[in-house]
Amino acid sequence: MTLGRLGSHGPGPEIERNRSRGGTVAEGEESESDAPPLCDQTHCPLVDWGDAQRRCHHANRHRFDRNNTLEPRTAPFVSKGTQTVPKSAVVIRTWVGFRYTPQAIVTLRAMINELALGSGGEYDIHLLLHVKDNSVLFWESQALFEEIRAHNVPEEFRGLVTLWSEKQMETVYPGPFTNNTENRSGKSIHGVWRSPHMPLQYFAQNHPEYNFYWNWEMDVRSTGHYYELFDKLGRWARDQPRRGLWERNAKYYIEGLHSSWNKWAESVEKENEAAGNTPVWGPLLFPNSGALHSPQSIWPPDELETEAYNRWGIGEEADLITLSPMFDPDQTRWMFDKDVTGYDLDLPIPPRRVSIVAAARLSRRLLHLMHEEVFTFKRTMWTEMWPPSCALHYGLKAVYAPHPVYFDRNWPVDAAEKIFNGGKYGSSGGNASSVFGSYQHNLQGSTWYHNARFAGALWRRWLGQEHDGGGGEGLDRMCLRSMLLHPVKHEA
Fold first, then answer.
1. Looking at residue 292, what is its pLDDT?
2. CB of 164 within 8 A of CB of 202?
3. Residues 117-176: pLDDT tens digits?
4. Which ranges of the chain have pLDDT less than 70?
5. Are 392 and 246 contacting, i.e. CB atoms less than 8 angstroms apart?
6. How far is it, in rounded angstroms, from Cα 95 to Cα 47?
7. How many C-beta atoms surround the C-beta of residue 485 within 10 A?
8. How many Cα atoms within 13 Å fall on the side-chain side of residue 214?
9. How far apart are CA 29 and CA 230, in angstroms?
C-alpha cells in the first residue's frame, strides 16, 4: 500500500505486520493483540481535517452560490452572471466501537484530500457517528459530546464528527407511527436497521448549506480517484434525459451484450411498450398520494411537443443518484418489500422502488421532502426503499448510474442477462425470478452488493495479500481499473 494508490496518504503498518508474519486474517476474525490503536501517531500527522476543510471553503467561497435554494437547477449553476458550482457533503456512517485501522485512516485521508481540499471546497467530508447507548443524551451536554468523540475517533478526524442515536431520532421524529403494512425485521421504526435515513434527513435540516449529500459507508472502497468518481457520476446523471429514465433505472446495462448505451435504451423502451407498461412521466398519482405538493419546476412538458419530450431532463441535476438499479419490489420476494408505514391500509400499497446498497447522492430538496413526510405525516418505508420511492412519488429526477461491477466467474452474457435482468419486466420485478429476490445469491460473487463476497477478496488481492491460494508477497500487484467495492469488512 505504501507505494500504491493510497501511498501518498500514509503507510499501512497493520498490513505490513501481517505480511511479515506470512499469514492473513480470515473474514470476520480479529486478534486483540494485533489490533492497532485508533491512530499510530508515528504515521498520523497532527492535522485537524475539519479546520482544513473550513479554511479551504472560506478561500473558495466565491465559487459557491450564497443564495442557495431547495431547487436543484440546471448546470452550470449561475449566480449574478458568475458560474458557480454546487456544494456537496459526503456523510460517512460510523459508530461507537468502530476500529480505525490504518487502511480506514488512509481511505478517509484520501477522500478529504481528493474530494474536499483538491476540489477547492466543492465537497466536505462528515462522519455521522452512531451512539448505540440510548441512555446517553449527548445533545444536552457539550462535555459528553467531546468525551464520546475523543474516545471513538482519531484526533485528526474529530472536527468532522456529528453524533446521533436512536433515542435522539425518537425526539426528532416523534410518533405515533401507525398503519405498518409488514415489519419482517421486527425492529423499531427509529432503529438503525430500518431507518438510517432519519439521521441523514436531520443532518440535512441542520446543514442546509449543501446542495447534495452523499450517503456513504465505512466499508466502501474505491481503486480510483475520489473526485473523478463523484464528479463523473454527477455529470453523467445530469446529462440523462427523463424519457424512459425510470424504466432504464430498473435494469443492469451489460456492455458485452447491449452494445451502445443508446441502442440499449431504445430496446428497454420498446420492451416496456410491448409489455403494455405505462412509462413514468412526472409526479405519480396514486390513491395514497397527495401529502405534499410536487415542486412546480419538475412538471413535464407537453408530450405532444416531440423535441421537448425527448430533451426533458437533459442538463437537469439529479435529485437522487444510486449505484444499483432501482427496481419495483412488488412480487419479487425481496424480504422488505412491504415494510411501509403511515399509509391508509384500506387503500392499495403505494408504488415503490428499491436500490440495494444504500450508498447514494440525495439532493436537499429530496431530503426535505423525506423529512416532511416522516415528521409531519408519519410516513416512511424501509431505508433502501424510502429515497427512491419519494423521488418516484414526487416526480424528482432519479438516476441509477452504472459503474463497473466484476464477478468471480466468467458469466456468458446471455446467461447474465437472464439472471440479472430476469423477472417479468427485467429487474423491475413482476415475479419471483428477480435477482433481488429468490436469485440474489448470484450477486454474492460480485464486487457490489450488500453481501458481495468478491469485493473484499479482490480488494485484499489488490493490496498485495494472499487470498485463496493466489497473490501474496513477491508477486506483482494487480493493475485494476477504477472501481467501487462493497462490502470490505477487513483488510488484512
1. 82
2. yes
3. 999 999 999 999 999 999 999 999 999 999 999 999 999 999 999 999 999 999 999 999
4. 1-4, 11-45, 67-69, 72-82, 290, 303-305, 423-433, 467-477
5. yes
6. 22
7. 24
8. 26
9. 32
* Residue 212 main-chain phi, psi, to 5 deg: -140, 155
The β-bridge relationship of strands 123-130 and 424-427 is unpaired
- Per the listing, cell 413535464 goes with 300
Long-range pairs for 191-196 at CB < 8 Å and ≥24 separation? 191/166, 192/130, 192/166, 194/339, 194/382, 194/383, 195/169, 195/380, 195/383, 196/93, 196/358, 196/383
CA distance 305 to 49: 51
Core vs surface per residue 285-309: b (16+ CB within 10 A) or e? eeebbebeebbeebeeeeeeeeeeb
Question: Residue 78 has which C-alpha cell?
Answer: 449561475
* Alpha-carbon span 375 to 377, nearest angstrom: 6
Contact 453, 445 (CB under 8 A): yes
For the chain, what is the HEC assignment?
CCCCCCHHHCCCHHHHHHHHHCCCCCCCCCCHHHCCCCCCCCCCCCCCHHHHHHHHHHHCHHHECCCCCCCCCECCEEECCEEEECCEEEEEEEECCCCCCHHHHHHHHHHHHHHHHCCCCCEEEEEEEECCCCCCCHHHCHHHHHHHHHHHCCHHHHHHEEEECHHHHHHHCCCCCCCCCCCCCCCCCCCCCCCCHHHHHHHHHHCCCCCEEEEEECCCEECCCHHHHHHHHHHHHHCCCCCCHHHHHCCCCCHHHHCCHHHHHHHHHHHHHHCCCCCCCCCCCCCCCCCCCCCHHHCCCCCCCHHHHHHCCCCECCCEEECCCCECCCCCCCCCCCCEECCCCCCCCCCCCECCCCCEEEEHHHHHHHHHHHHHHCCEECCCCHHHHHHHHHCCCEEECCCCCCECCCCCHHHHHHHHCCCEEEECCCCCCCCCCCCHHHHHHECECCCCHHHHHHHHHHCCCEECCEECCCCCCCCCCCCEEECCCCCC
Site of grid cell 474516545: 151
Q: Render pLDDT for 65-74 as a digit per residue (tens, 0 to 9).
A: 876 667 766 5
Closest CA to 131 of 123, 140, 122: 140
Q: Distance (Å, rounded) from C-alpha 191 to C-alpha 205?
A: 19
Rounded to an integer, what distance in angstroms lies between the CA atom of residue 17 and that of residue 395?
53
Round to whole Å and give the CA distance between 467 and 329: 36
**Cα end-to-end span (Å), the chain:** 12
